[in-house]
């Protein structure tokens, strides 16, 4: 049976739940600045994630941990100014919600008020339920994140596939059901076995968006710099590169350098 595709002028949290109900897959990409967000939104993406992955791809950090709430608000506000259709979800950065539910609420309110974002995303399940409840009680939509949770990298010690063992797989399913019960509108599941991710997607009525979680979920998300081939160092199995911008941009810049040095640029038509 083919999916029912509805033409949405503006994507909302309700739109995503409708998409799952209609069997239409949800497309999601990251963006961190106005120019990129404008392109991504115009291309028809459903959800833009202002991810704490900005810590890696924009600032060059090894992990997502160093990025601050102020920096996330800066990136998110830049994205929001560009977007006309997509739902903009903003990551709560490490340290802004884990230990104190009141702090989680303050952080979320700052993101919504100062950036204009449409929702926030938090990593974790049962252990952060009080933070999720407080944020939702304030009327702020929450997207969950289970499986590999990069903010806990030093706890895991590796970026390897999560929930391969039965106990962790059972906890992931329980956490997904809990997140739906609490009121989350969607969940990202990262780097878990495809059959487990599909089982989770079928167990709950809210959308499950996968990254490295197979095709049996309700949508997919990738980091924009990865799928456009802007870096050539990150090559996990789940990544499909749709372009090789690293090579193309390097070639173009090298040509510019050569043209400047040889005085080929600017020519007579390129000056006043």
TrEMBL record:
Q: Where does Mg(2+) bind?
A: 52, 91, 123
Residues annotated as catalytic: 190
- Which cellular component terms (GO) are annotated to the entry? cytoplasm
InterPro entries, A to Z: Pantoate_hydroxy_MeTrfase, Pyrv/PenolPyrv_kinase-like_dom, Pyrv_kinase-like_dom_sf
Pathway named in the protein's UniProt entry: Cofactor biosynthesis; (R)-pantothenate biosynthesis; (R)-pantoate from 3-methyl-2-oxobutanoate: step 1/2
User: How cofactor binds (record note)?
Assistant: Binds 1 Mg(2+) ion per subunit.
- State its cofactor: Mg(2+)
Query: What protein name is recorded for this chain?
Result: 3-methyl-2-oxobutanoate hydroxymethyltransferase
Please name the gene that encodes this protein: panB
């Amino acid at each position: 049976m083919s999916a029912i595709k509805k033409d949405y002028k503006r994507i909302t949290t309700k739109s995503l739940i409708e998409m799952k109900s209609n069997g239409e897959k949800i497309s999601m990409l990251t963006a961190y600045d106005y120019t990129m967000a404008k392109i991504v939104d115009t291309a028809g993406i459903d959800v833009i994630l202002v991810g704490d992955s900005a810590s890696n791809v924009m600032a060059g950090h090894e992990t997502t941990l160093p990025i601050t709430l102020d920096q996330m608000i800066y990136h998110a506000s830049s994205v929001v100014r560009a977007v006309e259709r997509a739902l903009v979800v903003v990551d709560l950065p490490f340290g802004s919600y884990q230990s104190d539910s009141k702090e989680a609420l303050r952080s979320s309110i700052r993101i919504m008020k100062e950036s204009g974002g449409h929702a926030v995303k938090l990593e974790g399940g049962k252990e952060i339920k009080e933070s999720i409840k407080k944020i939702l009680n304030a009327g702020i939509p929450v997207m969950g994140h289970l499986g590999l949770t990069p903010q806990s990298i030093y706890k895991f010690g590796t970026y390897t596939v999560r929930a391969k063992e039965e106990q962790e797989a059972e906890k992931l399913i329980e956490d997904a059901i809990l997140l739906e019960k609490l009121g989350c509108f969607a969940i990202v599941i990262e780097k878990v076995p495809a059959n487990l991710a599909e089982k989770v997607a079928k167990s709950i009525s809210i959308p499950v968006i996968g990254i490295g979680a197979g095709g049996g979920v309700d949508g997919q998300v990738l980091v924009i710099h990865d799928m456009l081939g802007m870096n050539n160092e990150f090559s996990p199995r789940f990544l499909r590169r749709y372009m090789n911008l690293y090579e193309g941009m390097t070639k173009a810049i090298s040509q510019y350098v050569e043209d400047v040095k040889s005085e080929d640029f600017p020519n007579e038509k390129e000056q006043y």
